[in-house]
Design goal:
Layout: E1 2-13, E2 16-27, E3 31-35, H1 42-49, E4 57-62, E5 70-73, H2 87-92, H3 107-119, H4 135-149, E6 153-157, H5 165-181, E7 185-189, H6 193-199, E8 202-207, E9 209-215, H7 216-221, H8 223-229
Parallel strand pairs: 3-7, 3-8, 5-6, 6-7
Antiparallel strand pairs: 1-2, 1-4, 8-9
Length: about 240
């Protein structure tokens, strides 16, 4: 069953078209990596699906899903150096959009937040100030907050770009577990082709328009894959 359907989607940035005539579906329990060189429209596509950016034309249909039920971890999250909140308070803030007319977090919110922290092996930091954590630990807390916002789907925009190799490996393992054990569909923008081939179920490869969308096994057989992976030069601009 589809969660999100994009049909003939065009997106403009300052009147310049940056996404051309894109059509694809995100289905339940999908794990999709969006690949492409810088400026190919990957992050813009994500923001448009999330309703953070207006489309030029085309259609985005959410199936049995509301925008406030979608989890999102952006590429950059601005956190003030003197940010006073504890880890638990940051995670709980992921439920803000679901409060509606009730301004307080209830027992169910707190129980789910604790469950997510346990799942991410961050429960021991529950009462620690967010600002005292390492970058990798902070990213796991921000992931936990995004999961609180998520009902069936989670969007991530280059979540490992500032992490060291050890935390990067751990982060990818956690995302894979979310997909397999919690049945959450994952859509991730990344430049990490190796991680995409290892973890993803599907690849969306873009260069403003769709170059490829489908299963990883088919991607490896495609001209697009051969073009971008040949000779170790993953993003050869003269290729496609």
């Amino acid at each position: 069953m589809s969660l999100v359907s994009c049909r003939n989607l065009f997106v403009a940035y300052e009147e310049n078209i940056v996404v051309y005539d894109l059509s694809f579906d995100i289905k339940e329990q999908d794990y999709i990596f969006i690949l492409g060189e810088n400026g190919s429209g990957k992050s813009t596509l994500l923001k448009t699906i999330l309703g953070l950016k207006s489309k030029k034309k085309g259609e985005i249909v959410l199936e049995n899903l509301k925008r406030n039920e979608i989890g999102y971890l952006p590429q950059k999250v601005l956190i003030q150096k003197n940010f006073p909140a504890s880890v638990f308070e940051v995670v709980l803030s992921g439920f803000v959009n679901s409060l509606k007319f009730f301004p307080f977090f209830n027992a169910k919110h707190k129980e789910k937040a604790e469950q997510i922290l346990r799942f991410l092996d961050m429960e021991k930091f529950k009462n620690v100030s967010f600002r005292k954590l390492s970058k990798g630990q902070q990213q796991k807390v921000l992931l936990a907050r995004a999961i609180c916002s998520s009902k069936k789907i989670l969007f991530l925009d280059e979540p490992c770009s500032s992490l060291d190799p050890i935390f990067t490996k751990e982060f990818y393992l956690l995302i894979k577990r979310l997909n397999e054990e919690k049945k959450i569909a994952i859509v991730m923008v990344s430049h990490d082709v190796e991680a995409a081939l290892k973890n993803a179920k599907k690849i969306l490869h873009m260069k403003k328009k769709m170059l490829f969308f489908g299963e990883v096994s088919e991607y490896l057989k495609s001209d697009v894959s051969k073009c971008f992976l040949k000779g170790g030069d993953i993003f050869d601009k003269g290729c496609c």
